[in-house]
Structure to design on (517 residues):
Protein backbone atom coordinates (compact mmCIF):
# COMPACT_ATOMS: atom_id res chain seq x y z
CA UNK A 1 0.00 0.00 0.00
CA UNK A 2 1.22 3.48 -0.86
CA UNK A 3 1.57 6.06 1.88
CA UNK A 4 2.04 9.77 1.53
CA UNK A 5 5.18 9.40 -0.51
CA UNK A 6 3.68 8.47 -3.87
CA UNK A 7 3.62 10.37 -7.15
CA UNK A 8 -0.05 11.37 -6.75
CA UNK A 9 -0.80 14.16 -4.24
CA UNK A 10 -3.91 16.19 -3.50
CA UNK A 11 -3.51 19.83 -2.50
CA UNK A 12 -5.72 22.82 -1.66
CA UNK A 13 -4.76 26.18 -3.09
CA UNK A 14 -5.43 29.48 -1.26
CA UNK A 15 -8.43 31.31 -2.74
CA UNK A 16 -7.19 34.48 -4.47
CA UNK A 17 -8.50 37.95 -3.58
CA UNK A 18 -7.86 41.52 -4.60
CA UNK A 19 -5.26 41.87 -1.89
CA UNK A 20 -3.71 38.49 -2.67
CA UNK A 21 -3.44 38.14 -6.43
CA UNK A 22 -0.76 35.45 -6.68
CA UNK A 23 -1.01 33.61 -10.02
CA UNK A 24 -2.53 30.15 -10.22
CA UNK A 25 0.74 28.41 -11.16
CA UNK A 26 2.60 30.10 -8.31
CA UNK A 27 -0.11 29.14 -5.82
CA UNK A 28 0.10 25.53 -7.05
CA UNK A 29 3.87 25.56 -6.68
CA UNK A 30 3.66 26.94 -3.14
CA UNK A 31 1.14 24.30 -2.09
CA UNK A 32 3.22 21.50 -3.58
CA UNK A 33 6.47 22.77 -2.07
CA UNK A 34 4.87 22.51 1.35
CA UNK A 35 3.34 19.09 0.58
CA UNK A 36 6.57 17.69 -0.85
CA UNK A 37 8.96 19.48 1.52
CA UNK A 38 10.99 20.77 -1.39
CA UNK A 39 12.19 24.11 -2.69
CA UNK A 40 11.75 23.40 -6.41
CA UNK A 41 8.59 22.52 -8.31
CA UNK A 42 8.22 22.97 -12.07
CA UNK A 43 4.83 23.41 -13.70
CA UNK A 44 5.35 23.00 -17.47
CA UNK A 45 3.46 25.02 -20.06
CA UNK A 46 1.31 22.06 -21.06
CA UNK A 47 -0.12 21.97 -17.52
CA UNK A 48 -0.34 25.76 -17.05
CA UNK A 49 -2.49 26.17 -20.17
CA UNK A 50 -5.52 24.50 -18.59
CA UNK A 51 -4.73 25.30 -14.96
CA UNK A 52 -6.87 28.47 -14.47
CA UNK A 53 -10.10 26.76 -15.49
CA UNK A 54 -9.37 23.56 -13.53
CA UNK A 55 -8.50 25.43 -10.33
CA UNK A 56 -11.91 27.14 -10.31
CA UNK A 57 -13.83 24.10 -11.61
CA UNK A 58 -12.62 22.03 -8.67
CA UNK A 59 -12.96 24.84 -6.10
CA UNK A 60 -9.20 25.27 -5.61
CA UNK A 61 -8.66 21.59 -4.79
CA UNK A 62 -6.53 19.57 -7.19
CA UNK A 63 -5.16 16.07 -7.55
CA UNK A 64 -1.70 16.32 -9.04
CA UNK A 65 0.35 13.71 -10.83
CA UNK A 66 4.04 14.38 -10.20
CA UNK A 67 7.43 13.09 -11.16
CA UNK A 68 10.67 13.53 -9.31
CA UNK A 69 13.65 14.74 -11.32
CA UNK A 70 17.20 15.87 -10.59
CA UNK A 71 16.18 19.50 -10.04
CA UNK A 72 13.17 18.68 -7.86
CA UNK A 73 9.58 17.85 -8.83
CA UNK A 74 7.66 18.24 -12.09
CA UNK A 75 3.88 18.46 -12.33
CA UNK A 76 2.75 16.04 -15.02
CA UNK A 77 -1.00 16.56 -14.71
CA UNK A 78 -3.70 18.23 -12.59
CA UNK A 79 -7.19 16.77 -12.32
CA UNK A 80 -10.41 16.32 -10.36
CA UNK A 81 -9.53 15.53 -6.70
CA UNK A 82 -12.67 13.41 -6.40
CA UNK A 83 -12.41 11.81 -9.84
CA UNK A 84 -12.53 8.06 -10.29
CA UNK A 85 -10.30 7.85 -13.35
CA UNK A 86 -7.19 5.81 -12.49
CA UNK A 87 -3.72 7.31 -12.51
CA UNK A 88 -1.37 4.67 -13.86
CA UNK A 89 2.23 3.91 -14.62
CA UNK A 90 3.98 1.18 -16.59
CA UNK A 91 7.08 -0.67 -15.42
CA UNK A 92 9.07 -2.02 -18.36
CA UNK A 93 11.86 -4.59 -18.46
CA UNK A 94 13.66 -4.19 -21.79
CA UNK A 95 15.29 -7.59 -22.07
CA UNK A 96 17.56 -8.68 -24.88
CA UNK A 97 15.33 -11.69 -25.52
CA UNK A 98 12.03 -10.74 -23.91
CA UNK A 99 10.28 -7.52 -22.94
CA UNK A 100 7.82 -7.48 -20.03
CA UNK A 101 5.43 -4.68 -19.06
CA UNK A 102 3.36 -4.21 -15.90
CA UNK A 103 0.48 -1.74 -15.60
CA UNK A 104 0.18 -0.28 -12.09
CA UNK A 105 -2.39 1.96 -10.39
CA UNK A 106 -0.16 4.66 -8.87
CA UNK A 107 -2.67 5.52 -6.14
CA UNK A 108 -3.41 2.03 -4.83
CA UNK A 109 -0.27 0.16 -5.89
CA UNK A 110 -2.44 -2.50 -7.48
CA UNK A 111 -1.19 -4.33 -10.57
CA UNK A 112 -3.82 -3.96 -13.30
CA UNK A 113 -2.12 -6.20 -15.83
CA UNK A 114 1.17 -7.71 -16.94
CA UNK A 115 2.32 -9.26 -20.20
CA UNK A 116 5.42 -9.82 -22.25
CA UNK A 117 6.57 -10.36 -25.80
CA UNK A 118 9.69 -11.51 -27.59
CA UNK A 119 12.01 -8.59 -28.31
CA UNK A 120 11.32 -7.83 -32.00
CA UNK A 121 14.95 -6.87 -32.50
CA UNK A 122 15.73 -10.60 -32.51
CA UNK A 123 14.29 -10.79 -36.03
CA UNK A 124 16.79 -8.16 -37.14
CA UNK A 125 19.82 -9.40 -35.19
CA UNK A 126 19.77 -12.29 -32.70
CA UNK A 127 22.12 -11.00 -30.00
CA UNK A 128 23.47 -7.77 -28.54
CA UNK A 129 26.70 -7.79 -30.54
CA UNK A 130 24.88 -8.39 -33.82
CA UNK A 131 22.47 -5.54 -33.03
CA UNK A 132 25.29 -3.13 -32.28
CA UNK A 133 26.91 -4.00 -35.61
CA UNK A 134 23.56 -3.68 -37.40
CA UNK A 135 23.09 -0.23 -35.86
CA UNK A 136 26.10 0.98 -37.88
CA UNK A 137 24.38 0.19 -41.18
CA UNK A 138 22.32 2.78 -43.04
CA UNK A 139 19.02 3.19 -41.15
CA UNK A 140 20.01 0.21 -38.99
CA UNK A 141 19.79 2.07 -35.69
CA UNK A 142 16.37 3.51 -36.53
CA UNK A 143 15.16 0.06 -37.60
CA UNK A 144 16.16 -1.40 -34.24
CA UNK A 145 14.75 1.54 -32.29
CA UNK A 146 11.40 1.68 -34.06
CA UNK A 147 10.87 -2.09 -33.79
CA UNK A 148 11.04 -2.03 -29.99
CA UNK A 149 9.14 1.27 -29.62
CA UNK A 150 6.30 0.12 -31.88
CA UNK A 151 5.99 -3.14 -29.95
CA UNK A 152 5.94 -1.35 -26.58
CA UNK A 153 3.17 0.92 -27.86
CA UNK A 154 1.10 -2.08 -28.92
CA UNK A 155 1.69 -3.79 -25.58
CA UNK A 156 0.80 -0.68 -23.57
CA UNK A 157 -2.50 -0.29 -25.42
CA UNK A 158 -3.37 -3.96 -24.95
CA UNK A 159 -2.64 -3.72 -21.23
CA UNK A 160 -4.87 -0.67 -20.90
CA UNK A 161 -7.66 -2.26 -22.91
CA UNK A 162 -7.46 -5.34 -20.71
CA UNK A 163 -7.81 -3.13 -17.62
CA UNK A 164 -10.70 -1.17 -19.13
CA UNK A 165 -8.88 2.18 -19.22
CA UNK A 166 -7.56 4.51 -21.91
CA UNK A 167 -3.90 4.90 -22.75
CA UNK A 168 -4.17 8.55 -21.63
CA UNK A 169 -4.46 7.26 -18.04
CA UNK A 170 -0.77 6.28 -18.10
CA UNK A 171 1.37 9.18 -16.88
CA UNK A 172 4.67 7.55 -15.92
CA UNK A 173 6.90 4.80 -17.27
CA UNK A 174 9.97 3.33 -15.54
CA UNK A 175 12.24 1.26 -17.79
CA UNK A 176 15.24 -0.94 -17.09
CA UNK A 177 17.52 -2.70 -19.55
CA UNK A 178 21.17 -3.43 -20.10
CA UNK A 179 23.38 -0.69 -21.49
CA UNK A 180 23.01 -1.75 -25.12
CA UNK A 181 19.23 -2.14 -24.87
CA UNK A 182 18.94 1.31 -23.29
CA UNK A 183 20.88 2.83 -26.19
CA UNK A 184 18.81 1.04 -28.82
CA UNK A 185 15.55 1.98 -27.05
CA UNK A 186 16.51 5.66 -27.20
CA UNK A 187 18.14 5.53 -30.63
CA UNK A 188 21.62 6.37 -29.29
CA UNK A 189 24.64 5.14 -31.25
CA UNK A 190 25.90 2.06 -29.33
CA UNK A 191 29.06 1.51 -31.43
CA UNK A 192 31.59 2.54 -28.82
CA UNK A 193 30.19 0.30 -26.08
CA UNK A 194 32.13 -2.61 -27.64
CA UNK A 195 35.27 -0.71 -28.59
CA UNK A 196 38.14 -0.07 -26.21
CA UNK A 197 37.92 1.85 -23.88
CA UNK A 198 34.22 0.80 -23.96
CA UNK A 199 32.41 4.11 -23.46
CA UNK A 200 28.60 4.34 -23.53
CA UNK A 201 26.89 7.30 -25.13
CA UNK A 202 25.06 7.91 -21.86
CA UNK A 203 24.97 6.33 -18.44
CA UNK A 204 22.33 8.49 -16.77
CA UNK A 205 19.60 9.53 -19.22
CA UNK A 206 17.56 12.43 -17.92
CA UNK A 207 13.82 11.77 -17.54
CA UNK A 208 12.08 12.65 -20.78
CA UNK A 209 8.71 13.22 -22.38
CA UNK A 210 7.22 9.96 -23.60
CA UNK A 211 6.40 11.56 -26.95
CA UNK A 212 10.05 12.47 -27.53
CA UNK A 213 10.88 8.75 -27.37
CA UNK A 214 7.89 7.78 -29.50
CA UNK A 215 5.96 6.15 -26.66
CA UNK A 216 2.22 6.85 -26.90
CA UNK A 217 0.84 7.41 -23.40
CA UNK A 218 -0.73 10.51 -21.85
CA UNK A 219 0.54 13.52 -23.87
CA UNK A 220 2.39 14.81 -20.78
CA UNK A 221 3.74 11.42 -19.64
CA UNK A 222 7.31 11.11 -18.42
CA UNK A 223 9.76 8.25 -18.90
CA UNK A 224 12.61 7.29 -16.59
CA UNK A 225 15.35 4.85 -17.57
CA UNK A 226 17.44 3.25 -14.86
CA UNK A 227 21.06 4.43 -15.13
CA UNK A 228 23.97 2.27 -16.27
CA UNK A 229 27.31 1.92 -14.54
CA UNK A 230 29.19 1.25 -17.76
CA UNK A 231 29.22 -0.88 -20.89
CA UNK A 232 28.67 -4.17 -19.08
CA UNK A 233 26.59 -3.13 -16.07
CA UNK A 234 23.21 -1.78 -17.05
CA UNK A 235 20.12 -0.29 -15.52
CA UNK A 236 18.48 -3.71 -15.29
CA UNK A 237 21.04 -4.65 -12.64
CA UNK A 238 20.56 -1.39 -10.74
CA UNK A 239 16.85 -2.22 -10.71
CA UNK A 240 17.73 -5.74 -9.53
CA UNK A 241 19.76 -4.40 -6.61
CA UNK A 242 16.84 -2.15 -5.71
CA UNK A 243 14.52 -5.16 -5.83
CA UNK A 244 16.75 -7.39 -3.68
CA UNK A 245 17.62 -4.67 -1.19
CA UNK A 246 21.27 -5.71 -0.98
CA UNK A 247 22.21 -2.05 -0.60
CA UNK A 248 20.29 -1.85 2.71
CA UNK A 249 21.57 -5.00 4.42
CA UNK A 250 24.08 -4.94 7.25
CA UNK A 251 25.54 -8.35 6.40
CA UNK A 252 26.86 -9.24 2.92
CA UNK A 253 24.47 -10.67 0.35
CA UNK A 254 24.92 -11.56 -3.29
CA UNK A 255 22.73 -11.44 -6.40
CA UNK A 256 23.34 -13.48 -9.55
CA UNK A 257 21.54 -12.85 -12.84
CA UNK A 258 22.35 -15.30 -15.63
CA UNK A 259 21.49 -14.44 -19.22
CA UNK A 260 23.82 -13.64 -22.08
CA UNK A 261 26.38 -13.04 -19.33
CA UNK A 262 26.48 -13.93 -15.67
CA UNK A 263 26.23 -10.68 -13.73
CA UNK A 264 27.01 -10.67 -10.04
CA UNK A 265 26.59 -8.05 -7.30
CA UNK A 266 27.92 -8.50 -3.77
CA UNK A 267 27.66 -6.07 -0.92
CA UNK A 268 26.06 -4.43 2.08
CA UNK A 269 24.63 -1.02 2.92
CA UNK A 270 28.19 0.33 3.00
CA UNK A 271 29.73 -1.14 -0.17
CA UNK A 272 28.84 -2.92 -3.39
CA UNK A 273 31.08 -4.86 -5.78
CA UNK A 274 29.96 -6.04 -9.21
CA UNK A 275 31.36 -8.01 -12.11
CA UNK A 276 30.17 -9.81 -15.22
CA UNK A 277 31.47 -12.75 -17.21
CA UNK A 278 30.49 -15.17 -19.96
CA UNK A 279 28.70 -17.93 -18.06
CA UNK A 280 25.30 -17.87 -19.71
CA UNK A 281 25.31 -18.93 -23.37
CA UNK A 282 25.24 -22.70 -22.86
CA UNK A 283 22.45 -22.28 -20.35
CA UNK A 284 20.27 -20.08 -22.57
CA UNK A 285 20.63 -22.06 -25.78
CA UNK A 286 23.49 -20.05 -27.23
CA UNK A 287 25.87 -23.00 -27.44
CA UNK A 288 23.73 -26.07 -27.07
CA UNK A 289 21.58 -27.28 -29.96
CA UNK A 290 19.08 -28.67 -27.48
CA UNK A 291 19.02 -25.59 -25.25
CA UNK A 292 16.22 -23.04 -25.58
CA UNK A 293 14.40 -20.42 -23.59
CA UNK A 294 11.56 -21.56 -21.34
CA UNK A 295 8.20 -22.24 -23.00
CA UNK A 296 5.52 -24.93 -23.45
CA UNK A 297 7.04 -28.35 -24.01
CA UNK A 298 10.48 -27.29 -22.79
CA UNK A 299 12.02 -29.58 -20.18
CA UNK A 300 12.60 -27.70 -16.92
CA UNK A 301 13.20 -30.59 -14.49
CA UNK A 302 14.94 -33.96 -14.72
CA UNK A 303 15.10 -36.78 -12.15
CA UNK A 304 17.24 -39.92 -12.52
CA UNK A 305 17.07 -42.79 -10.04
CA UNK A 306 20.75 -43.48 -9.25
CA UNK A 307 20.15 -47.21 -8.78
CA UNK A 308 17.80 -48.07 -11.66
CA UNK A 309 18.84 -45.10 -13.84
CA UNK A 310 15.17 -44.57 -14.68
CA UNK A 311 14.66 -41.09 -16.11
CA UNK A 312 11.70 -38.78 -15.52
CA UNK A 313 11.40 -35.40 -17.22
CA UNK A 314 8.94 -32.57 -16.58
CA UNK A 315 8.01 -30.12 -19.30
CA UNK A 316 6.45 -26.67 -18.98
CA UNK A 317 2.67 -26.99 -19.23
CA UNK A 318 3.32 -30.76 -19.41
CA UNK A 319 3.43 -30.70 -23.22
CA UNK A 320 5.44 -33.26 -25.26
CA UNK A 321 9.15 -32.50 -24.94
CA UNK A 322 10.65 -30.30 -27.66
CA UNK A 323 13.88 -29.21 -25.95
CA UNK A 324 15.37 -28.17 -22.63
CA UNK A 325 15.95 -24.81 -20.96
CA UNK A 326 18.90 -23.66 -18.86
CA UNK A 327 17.51 -24.80 -15.52
CA UNK A 328 16.61 -28.15 -17.06
CA UNK A 329 20.15 -28.57 -18.36
CA UNK A 330 21.55 -27.94 -14.89
CA UNK A 331 19.09 -30.49 -13.48
CA UNK A 332 20.13 -32.99 -16.17
CA UNK A 333 23.86 -32.49 -15.60
CA UNK A 334 23.38 -32.85 -11.84
CA UNK A 335 21.32 -36.02 -12.17
CA UNK A 336 23.76 -37.57 -14.65
CA UNK A 337 26.65 -36.80 -12.32
CA UNK A 338 24.96 -37.93 -9.11
CA UNK A 339 23.94 -41.22 -10.75
CA UNK A 340 27.46 -41.89 -12.03
CA UNK A 341 26.49 -41.48 -15.69
CA UNK A 342 28.89 -38.54 -15.95
CA UNK A 343 32.28 -38.65 -14.23
CA UNK A 344 34.14 -35.94 -12.35
CA UNK A 345 35.70 -34.73 -15.62
CA UNK A 346 32.27 -34.09 -17.08
CA UNK A 347 32.54 -37.05 -19.47
CA UNK A 348 29.83 -39.62 -20.17
CA UNK A 349 30.30 -43.07 -18.66
CA UNK A 350 29.49 -45.60 -21.36
CA UNK A 351 28.98 -48.32 -18.80
CA UNK A 352 26.49 -46.33 -16.72
CA UNK A 353 24.66 -44.66 -19.64
CA UNK A 354 24.06 -47.93 -21.47
CA UNK A 355 21.89 -47.80 -24.61
CA UNK A 356 21.08 -44.14 -24.00
CA UNK A 357 24.60 -43.21 -25.13
CA UNK A 358 24.96 -43.28 -28.91
CA UNK A 359 27.44 -41.97 -31.45
CA UNK A 360 26.14 -39.15 -33.62
CA UNK A 361 28.56 -37.79 -36.22
CA UNK A 362 31.30 -39.44 -34.20
CA UNK A 363 30.33 -37.60 -30.99
CA UNK A 364 29.07 -39.35 -27.85
CA UNK A 365 25.46 -38.26 -27.39
CA UNK A 366 23.05 -39.00 -24.53
CA UNK A 367 19.41 -39.45 -25.57
CA UNK A 368 17.36 -37.92 -22.78
CA UNK A 369 14.01 -38.34 -24.54
CA UNK A 370 13.64 -40.97 -27.24
CA UNK A 371 12.28 -39.99 -30.65
CA UNK A 372 9.01 -41.86 -30.06
CA UNK A 373 8.33 -39.84 -26.89
CA UNK A 374 9.36 -36.35 -28.05
CA UNK A 375 7.19 -33.64 -29.49
CA UNK A 376 9.49 -33.21 -32.46
CA UNK A 377 9.73 -36.82 -33.64
CA UNK A 378 13.46 -36.66 -32.99
CA UNK A 379 15.44 -37.55 -29.86
CA UNK A 380 16.06 -34.81 -27.31
CA UNK A 381 19.77 -35.43 -26.88
CA UNK A 382 22.77 -33.96 -25.08
CA UNK A 383 26.08 -34.37 -26.89
CA UNK A 384 29.49 -34.39 -25.25
CA UNK A 385 30.09 -31.04 -26.96
CA UNK A 386 26.92 -29.64 -25.33
CA UNK A 387 27.99 -31.02 -21.96
CA UNK A 388 31.46 -29.50 -22.36
CA UNK A 389 29.83 -26.10 -22.97
CA UNK A 390 27.71 -26.51 -19.87
CA UNK A 391 30.78 -27.55 -17.87
CA UNK A 392 32.60 -24.42 -18.99
CA UNK A 393 29.60 -22.27 -18.09
CA UNK A 394 29.26 -23.76 -14.62
CA UNK A 395 33.01 -23.40 -14.06
CA UNK A 396 32.89 -19.78 -15.17
CA UNK A 397 29.97 -19.10 -12.83
CA UNK A 398 31.76 -20.63 -9.85
CA UNK A 399 34.97 -18.79 -10.73
CA UNK A 400 33.17 -15.45 -10.96
CA UNK A 401 31.63 -16.06 -7.54
CA UNK A 402 34.94 -17.08 -6.00
CA UNK A 403 36.76 -14.06 -7.43
CA UNK A 404 34.20 -11.53 -6.22
CA UNK A 405 33.47 -13.13 -2.83
CA UNK A 406 36.77 -14.58 -1.68
CA UNK A 407 39.43 -12.84 -3.77
CA UNK A 408 37.95 -9.34 -3.96
CA UNK A 409 35.80 -8.97 -0.84
CA UNK A 410 37.94 -11.27 1.31
CA UNK A 411 35.02 -13.14 2.83
CA UNK A 412 33.79 -16.73 2.65
CA UNK A 413 30.63 -18.11 1.06
CA UNK A 414 29.43 -19.00 4.56
CA UNK A 415 29.48 -15.29 5.42
CA UNK A 416 26.69 -14.57 2.93
CA UNK A 417 23.35 -13.75 4.55
CA UNK A 418 21.34 -14.15 1.34
CA UNK A 419 22.04 -15.57 -2.11
CA UNK A 420 19.61 -14.04 -4.60
CA UNK A 421 19.08 -15.66 -8.01
CA UNK A 422 17.45 -13.35 -10.55
CA UNK A 423 16.08 -13.43 -14.08
CA UNK A 424 14.04 -15.98 -16.00
CA UNK A 425 16.85 -18.46 -15.44
CA UNK A 426 16.66 -17.91 -11.71
CA UNK A 427 12.91 -18.46 -11.65
CA UNK A 428 13.33 -22.14 -12.54
CA UNK A 429 16.76 -23.13 -11.23
CA UNK A 430 16.96 -25.70 -8.44
CA UNK A 431 19.84 -24.57 -6.18
CA UNK A 432 20.47 -28.19 -5.15
CA UNK A 433 21.22 -29.11 -8.76
CA UNK A 434 23.48 -26.09 -9.24
CA UNK A 435 25.36 -27.01 -6.07
CA UNK A 436 25.68 -30.64 -7.16
CA UNK A 437 27.62 -29.73 -10.31
CA UNK A 438 29.66 -27.04 -8.54
CA UNK A 439 28.01 -24.07 -10.20
CA UNK A 440 26.84 -22.45 -6.96
CA UNK A 441 28.57 -22.71 -3.57
CA UNK A 442 27.57 -25.39 -1.09
CA UNK A 443 25.75 -23.23 1.42
CA UNK A 444 22.44 -23.88 3.27
CA UNK A 445 19.49 -23.96 0.87
CA UNK A 446 17.51 -21.53 3.03
CA UNK A 447 19.97 -18.78 2.10
CA UNK A 448 18.92 -18.97 -1.55
CA UNK A 449 16.06 -16.72 -2.65
CA UNK A 450 14.58 -16.58 -6.14
CA UNK A 451 13.78 -13.05 -7.29
CA UNK A 452 12.27 -13.78 -10.70
CA UNK A 453 12.33 -10.73 -12.97
CA UNK A 454 14.21 -8.39 -10.65
CA UNK A 455 14.55 -5.78 -13.40
CA UNK A 456 10.77 -5.49 -13.71
CA UNK A 457 10.26 -5.64 -9.94
CA UNK A 458 12.76 -2.85 -9.34
CA UNK A 459 11.06 -0.68 -11.97
CA UNK A 460 7.67 -1.34 -10.41
CA UNK A 461 8.94 -0.45 -6.93
CA UNK A 462 10.20 2.89 -8.20
CA UNK A 463 6.76 3.81 -9.57
CA UNK A 464 5.34 3.48 -6.08
CA UNK A 465 8.02 5.26 -4.06
CA UNK A 466 9.77 8.48 -5.17
CA UNK A 467 12.25 8.12 -2.29
CA UNK A 468 13.85 5.25 -4.20
CA UNK A 469 15.51 7.81 -6.47
CA UNK A 470 17.80 8.54 -3.53
CA UNK A 471 18.52 4.82 -3.15
CA UNK A 472 19.39 4.55 -6.85
CA UNK A 473 21.88 7.39 -6.41
CA UNK A 474 23.37 5.65 -3.35
CA UNK A 475 23.70 2.37 -5.24
CA UNK A 476 25.63 4.08 -8.04
CA UNK A 477 27.89 5.90 -5.59
CA UNK A 478 28.70 2.77 -3.56
CA UNK A 479 29.20 0.35 -6.46
CA UNK A 480 32.66 -0.69 -7.66
CA UNK A 481 32.94 -2.67 -10.89
CA UNK A 482 35.63 -5.36 -11.05
CA UNK A 483 37.05 -6.22 -14.47
CA UNK A 484 37.56 -9.99 -14.68
CA UNK A 485 39.61 -9.79 -17.88
CA UNK A 486 42.56 -8.42 -15.94
CA UNK A 487 42.18 -10.73 -12.95
CA UNK A 488 45.10 -13.18 -13.05
CA UNK A 489 43.56 -15.56 -10.52
CA UNK A 490 40.42 -16.11 -12.56
CA UNK A 491 41.91 -18.66 -14.99
CA UNK A 492 43.57 -20.60 -12.16
CA UNK A 493 40.25 -20.83 -10.34
CA UNK A 494 38.46 -21.69 -13.58
CA UNK A 495 40.69 -24.71 -14.23
CA UNK A 496 39.83 -26.27 -10.89
CA UNK A 497 36.13 -25.53 -11.29
CA UNK A 498 35.87 -27.49 -14.56
CA UNK A 499 35.64 -30.73 -12.57
CA UNK A 500 32.40 -32.04 -11.00
CA UNK A 501 31.70 -30.59 -8.56
CA UNK A 502 35.28 -29.30 -8.09
CA UNK A 503 38.83 -30.57 -7.81
CA UNK A 504 38.55 -29.89 -4.07
CA UNK A 505 35.68 -32.15 -3.03
CA UNK A 506 35.79 -30.76 0.51
CA UNK A 507 34.16 -27.58 -0.82
CA UNK A 508 30.96 -29.54 -1.52
CA UNK A 509 30.33 -31.75 1.52
CA UNK A 510 26.59 -32.10 0.82
CA UNK A 511 27.10 -33.69 -2.62
CA UNK A 512 26.78 -37.48 -2.53
CA UNK A 513 27.68 -39.40 -5.70
CA UNK A 514 26.41 -42.89 -6.59
CA UNK A 515 28.90 -45.57 -5.67
CA UNK A 516 30.87 -43.33 -3.31
CA UNK A 517 30.58 -43.11 0.44
Amino acid sequence: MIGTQGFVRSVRLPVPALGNNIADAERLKAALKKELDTDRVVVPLGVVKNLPGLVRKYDHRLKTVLFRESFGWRVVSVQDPDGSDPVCGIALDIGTTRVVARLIDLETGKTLGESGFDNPQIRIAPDVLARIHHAKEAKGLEELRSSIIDSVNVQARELCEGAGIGIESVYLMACAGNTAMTHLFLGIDPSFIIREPYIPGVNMPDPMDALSVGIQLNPNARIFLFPNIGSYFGGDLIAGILCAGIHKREEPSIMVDVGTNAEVVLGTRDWLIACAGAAGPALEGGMSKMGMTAGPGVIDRVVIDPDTRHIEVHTIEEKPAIGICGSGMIDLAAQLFLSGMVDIRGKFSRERCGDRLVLKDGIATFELVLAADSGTGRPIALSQVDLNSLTSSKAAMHSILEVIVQQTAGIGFDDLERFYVAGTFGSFIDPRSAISIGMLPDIPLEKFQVLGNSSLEGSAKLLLDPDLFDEIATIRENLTYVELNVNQEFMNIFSGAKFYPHTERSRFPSVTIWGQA
User: Anything to note?
Assistant: The chain has 16 helices and 22 strands. Residues 8-79 form a domain with the Ubiquitin-like (UB roll) fold (CATH 3.10.20.880). The chain has four domains: 8-79, 88-231, 245-281+390-498, 298-384. The CA atoms of residues 11 and 393 lie 56 Å apart.
